[in-house]
Design brief:
326 residues; alpha/beta; FAD/NAD(P)-binding domain; 8-stranded mixed β-sheet; 6-stranded mixed β-sheet; 17 strands; 29% helix; 27% strand; globular; binds flavin-adenine dinucleotide
């Protein structure tokens, strides 16, 4: 019987499993499909909330704590797996909002400064990771460390007896453990025990196949962003669509994202759109995360509801849950 079962093989579940195994616990991770192919693959990989003043102190503190460890974590993953998550401190150039009162208050409170470049704000310290590579490295790393990863394992029920968790049921198999972490991303809301609503918020993205260094920084404006990868690919996003688990992509959105990119980086107009995809953010109505133990069921923990910030908050949230379990 494992010391802990983790439900969901996204960035949150895998980082939680990693922290637990680093503490010496025996962990089984159950993933209903293939690890790292949902939101954690689809996202942009910016290691910061977009407009951080829109978020609570809790979200900001998870973000700051994660920003401190991300670079080192990526080095560890590269060393252990040979897969480079491409941590890249390219900076973020913000075009709007930074002069609003709430932004000014936030910048002062957290002592964050920026460079003024032609009435735009350059946050030099903001980094990105190449999230499809991060999740690939994470899966390999946790398997090397002894986490038992079972894919195509669809958890249908939590096994509960006398207000204590006893394990889970997946594919008609009962697996017992006295600790279970629910980190099923946008699907976490399918479990009745989740303390508040978690629902899918679809985001569509495109990638433009450009040459390296065509775009210098992440550009953020009008709520949209342009992310230059090291190899020249430029990711552009995104939409916020509450449409359930509808994965379809729309040509009109692809064109809008492309037009946005060209408006601010006209040199991209000579390059084509290579892919267009969508993903489901694990959203909450109040923008708050659910990183806590259950008040009602002993041994049940939640690490979910990360909405737009799961990639950037993952290390600190995983650490918090591992500490609670230990
Ligand atoms: C377009 C877009 C852009 C984004 N950009 C950024 C960004 O720049 N920076 C940032 O920090 N965040 C970003 N995000 C948000 C970020 O991707 C998410 O917050 C994060 O990936 C959530 O991780 P997760 O592990 O909870 O979810 P997921 O990656 O979705 O993983 C959940 C996993 O649980 C599995 N699962 C579900 N139900 C079950 C079950 N019953 N049994 C077993 N397994 C189950 C799923 O198959 C899935 O693999 C973006 C998201 C999107 C969609």
């Amino acid at each position: 019987m494992p010391d802990c079962i983790v439900i969901g093989g996204g960035v949150i579940g895998m980082m939680t499993a990693r922290e637990l195994t680093l503490k010496g616990l025996e962990v089984t991770l159950l993933e209903k499909g293939t690890c790292g192919k949902e939101s954690s693959w689809a996202g942009g990989g910016i290691i910061s909330p977009l407009y951080p003043w829109e978020y609570s102190d809790e979200v900001n503190s998870f973000s700051f704590a994660s920003q401190e460890v991300y670079e080192g974590l990526c080095h560890e993953l590269l060393d252990s797996t040979g897969i480079d998550p491409e941590f890249y401190r390219c900076g973020l150039l913000m075009l709007d909002q930074f002069e609003q009162d709430n932004a000014k208050t936030w910048l002062k409170k957290y002592q964050v400064s920026y460079q003024d470049i032609d009435d735009k704000a350059l946050f030099e310290n903001i980094a990105q990771i190449r999230n499809p590579r991060l999740v690939k490295a994470l899966k390999k790393d946790i398997e090397i460390r002894g986490v038992k990863v079972i894919e195509n394992a669809n958890v249908s029920d939590l096994l509960i007896d006398a207000d204590a968790i006893k394990g889970v049921k997946y594919n008609e198999v009962s697996l017992h453990s006295e600790n279970v972490v629910l980190s099923a991303g946008a699907w976490s809301g399918e479990f009745a025990q989740t303390p508040k609503e978690v629902f899918p918020m679809k985001g569509q993205m495109i990638v433009i196949q450009a040459k390296p260094k065509e775009v210098e920084h992440i550009i953020l404006g009008e709520g949209r962003y342009i992310i230059p990868r090291l190899d020249g690919n430029v990711v552009v996003g995104s939409t916020m669509q509450e449409v359930g688990f509808d994965r379809s992509t729309e040509d009109i959105i692809r064109d809008e994202l492309y037009d946005f990119a060209i408006k601010y980086q006209p040199q991209l107009s000579k390059y084509p759109v290579k892919y267009h995809w969508s993903g489901f953010r694990p959203a909450t109505r109040d923008n708050e995360v659910i990183v806590q133990k259950s008040d009602e069921i002993e041994g049940l923990y939640f690490n979910t509801g990360h909405f737009r910030n799961g990639l950037n908050m993952a290390p600190a949230c995983a650490k918090k849950i591992a500490n609670l379990i230990q």
